[in-house]
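yo

u said u wanted the structure for the complex thing, so here. seqs first:
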Amino acid sequence: MLMDLEARGHSEHPEALRLWLRMLTCTQLVEKQVRTQLRKQFDTTLPRFDLMAQLERYPEGLKMNEMSRRMMVTGGNVTGITDQLVGEGLVERVGVQGDRRAYRVRLTPRGRKVFDEMARQHEAWIMAAFGVLSPREVESLHRLLGKIKQHHHDSRLETA
Amino acid sequence: MLMDLEARGHSEHPEALRLWLRMLTCTQLVEKQVRTQLRKQFDTTLPRFDLMAQLERYPEGLKMNEMSRRMMVTGGNVTGITDQLVGEGLVERVGVQGDRRAYRVRLTPRGRKVFDEMARQHEAWIMAAFGVLSPREVESLHRLLGKIKQHHHDSRLETA
DNA sequence: TATTGTTATACTCTATAACTATA
DNA sequence: TATAGTTATAGAGTATAACAATA
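structre next:
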């Protein structure tokens, strides 16, 4: 279970490529851990956790298309995940005033309680994974990744 | 198609958590781009590209269990992906001397040629994604992520 | 006509576990 | 007994496209 995704680079191995492969490896290591623990401790999945996490910040709920955009997946999938969570009583659909096509999805009181416990654990897993870095290093990484994210965002606007 | 996975943090938002969410966002942005382009330009997938990339570094081929470890997936999946690539004439299985249970998988000449072209494109996509960073910033990111990877590796050894 | 959300479908990737053949 | 690899299965996750209801 060690890994060497970093072998994936082409022969010239420019620095950006090595960086990407290492980033992918790190992300997969942490993500695999999170998925496994979510399954083991809470019998849930990352997309379901994601959806609830989005809702936690919006007590009034989010519309389906907003959720789709935030989770970066298509609408049909959000419907499916939402259906599961509704079935478990963790979220609920409520009508939107003035537009009878739309819904808001929001956490139920029970959903909020369950999510709080998951988030507490999730936080601990993440802290463990990044615990090796000093606060300054964390801040540095955060800033550099911010540039990439911003750059991606800007590129999209240019071609839109 | 904007995103806000970074909403996923819990209310306290410690720095490590914010870092993780941003890292996940960045990775998904780039990965989605790579998957889409691999599909559009080469009608292939990331795992298939991964497998071939591993082989490119080992002209003599890799055994199935080595491949499984490197790709961080279980053996059955490697069999499936290999089967696809064999079917397309891009890789081949060759026997291992002295152990009739084992195989090596290696690129065929055609597979190598096809992979070279894919890798060339792949490199360009990555360079575009990370082009906003200076060489020093790339090096800095690479080093910091290396600490995380190493830390993860060490943690596993402790509990093994 | 356009938009919101759902349904239906199909495909890729994944882990698990049972299995075969060889060591 | 252990190891290399395959097969079988089930489920997660995804995109696409057709669809209904409403704007």
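The CA atoms of residues 57 and 101 of chain A lie 24 Å apart. Residues 1-43 of chain A form one domain.
cya
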